[in-house]
Amino acid sequence: QVDEKWDFVLVSDFHEVGSQKETKRRKFLDELSKKGFTIKKIEDEKLFHGVRAPKQIFRKYQWLLRNPDATNSKPDAHCEVPVTTRIRIVHFILHHTVTPDFEKLHDLMKKKVFEAAFPLHQKEEVTEYLKEKWARWRVIFCRQPIEKIRSYFGEKVALYFAWLGWYTYLLGFAAVVGLVIFVAGITVFNSSQVSKEICEATDTVMCPLCDQKCPFWLLSDTCTYAKVTHMIDNEGTVVFAMFMAIWATVFLELWKRQRATVVTNWDLYKWDEEEEELAMELINDMQHKPQQYQHSYFRSTIILLLVLVMIAVLIGVAHGLVIYRVVATAFFTQSEFEFLREQANTVAVMTGAVLHYITIVIMTKVNRRVALYLCDLEKPRTLSQRENNFTVKVFTFQFFTNFSSLIYIAFFLGRINGHPGNYVRIAGKWRLEECHPSGCITDLFIQMAIIMLLKQSISNVVEFLSPWVTHKLRKKRQHPRKRSMMSGEEDEEEEEDPCKSHWVNNYRLNEVEFLSLFDEFLEMVIQYSFTTIFVAAFPLAPLLAFCNNLLEIRLDAIKMMRLCRRIVPWKANDIGIWLQILEAIGILAVIGNGLVIAITSDFIPLQVYKYTYSPCTTENSTALDCSTGYINHSLSVFRVQDFEPHTKVPKMLPGHEITEYRDYRNADDYSYTVQFWHIFAARLAFLILFEHVALCVKLIAAWYVPDVPKSVKNEFRVRKHNNLRKELRWVMPWGDPP
């Protein structure tokens, strides 16, 4: 029959009659038959078994999980459960059915008894609608049909796309503000007093950048680099950092309201995941006993130690990137190519960023395996608990993988390298890097720009092309099999079963991993971290994220609808532990941006100079730029004869016996000057003030925007009132005899 509906399809190879694998397969199918399942076998290049659950299973589900706060709380025997619910229940029963050999489907798939188990993409009106109105590049700017997505893929997938759509929508506002700040920076490209002084410093001789074959150089040689730095590092940076701290809070608060509205319309606001799990356990096996919550302090301690070891490894990888940059800088400064010699530091930063991206790609796979191993050690009680544990571990590992190198550039580069005559060296040979006299923020800008561009270009291309190419190859490679030599059944001429092509086409689609939706969430949350935590150094991050997300939504839609098998439609009423992770990122964003402005940026030293040491403090001329003389004030003097003995001092420029470097040190004993401690105190004061103000604004915003709209609360109140009124109709009037 063409209109036959099958809940799941099991696929296996052809096994010899009487073989161990064939026996195990038969035992599993027999167990399903005992539970009332209808099973249909079709042979092609593989052996397909379609399974359909009996109606009484779904009636039990309806009765056990009737929602007293729902608009219609009385189960109707004639009202069929949604297809998404059918698939979810059947998936649960399939994976919890035990054979006489005490094996489950997961064990049988490991032993290659079954190759695959998946629900089918149905040829329905909603399928065609989603293919035409959602999974198309031409509708990239259109609103997503969340209700249709929910009716086909379930609430968990629908909430992911609802969250991603809401995040992208609000990201548009941040992208506009970031673009305005960046354009404003471009307008001061040639007008900054600080960069003018660097460009005019033709007689300021700077210390060599390495110990061997590196010449003295003029400060004016870095004129363009200084202009770029002050295009990024200006007063607008501070404003944008504060804006993004507030934006992150407002985004999450508005999402909570949006989510409350959505799940209320789905009658899921007070849905209990544990109750649903217990109900399905009882439907599958009436003799089932609930698993008890367990906690082992010994096991938790072991897990914690292993997590710390993994974090130490990831920090070690970041140290490897630092060593690469140091060695590369020394190598490029001795290159035969003039361009590499002149731009040694910039080239080292850029190649280091590319290497950082490669380590991210590699360590992402390693992090997943380690996190899965740690989850197996924890032995979580439920599927959701396992997913939450896995999520926290993978995000922690990914955070250190992505941000360890950025943290070094932002907060340690140029601050732990010592000073001329007493440099800090790696293995006693290579000097640590120094910051440019105009600051280190450009290095952070370059690093973030390269990583974000590579992640959002190469990763997206691979994410789409990999399943597309795999799907095309599977279709081309696999051909129908006319008869089964291994099954021991005679070949019979019969009409083509209408289910056959449907099942085979679904099988030829790409396999859906259990954690496929997790991967999408992780990708977006890491992007959210890039967009908020170091956004002070890279105001274009929201714009890049916004453009990427417009493509990401349709890319994920096309994969789910056209290239991959149907995902199991899980039920959910929120985005789970991801919300707590996003809130933690919001707090890290305040701390990170405060530290970038206070430590990485030249904003604080410049302000201290303007109001304490500049000509404006002694002269009343309004025409004078208060930053005049800042560069000369921020440089310290070094005598050439004080270089370390093993340093190969290059030939000095005629007429110069002293050289300069970026720091606040005395010329006599190279100790810190009073200005250094003034700036240090100002940095600390700004950091405390910025973070307290930003956190207060976040708390006010969280209080001002209620998590649950009043309309939702009122709707629940009306439902409860109506349900109580209905119950009262069955109560006998007081005083009447029983």
From TrEMBL:
Q: Choose one Gene Ontology CC annotation of this protein and give it.
A: plasma membrane
- Ranges for domain Anoctamin transmembrane come to 149-716
The annotated topology with respect to the bilayer is: Multi-pass membrane protein
Taxonomy of origin reads: Eukaryota, Metazoa, Chordata, Craniata, Vertebrata
| Origin: domain of life | Eukaryota
Q: Has keyword Glycoprotein? A: yes
Entry keyword set: Cell membrane, Glycoprotein, Membrane, Transmembrane, Transmembrane helix
Q: Please report the stretch or stretches of sequence annotated as the Anoctamin dimerisation domain.
A: 83-146
Q: What is its main location?
A: membrane
Q: Where in the cell is it found?
A: Cell membrane; Membrane
Q: Of which family is this protein a member?
A: Belongs to the anoctamin family.
Does the keyword Mitochondrion feature in the UniProt annotation? Answer: no
What the entry lists under PANTHER family is as follows: ANOCTAMIN, ANOCTAMIN-9
Q: Which GO terms describe its molecular function?
A: chloride channel activity; protein dimerization activity
> One short Pfam family name for this protein?
Anoct_dimer
Q: Please give the start and end residues of each transmembrane region.
A: 157-186, 237-255, 302-324, 344-363, 390-413, 525-551, 575-599, 680-705
| Protein name from the UniProt record | Anoctamin
- State the species of origin: Thinocorus orbignyianus
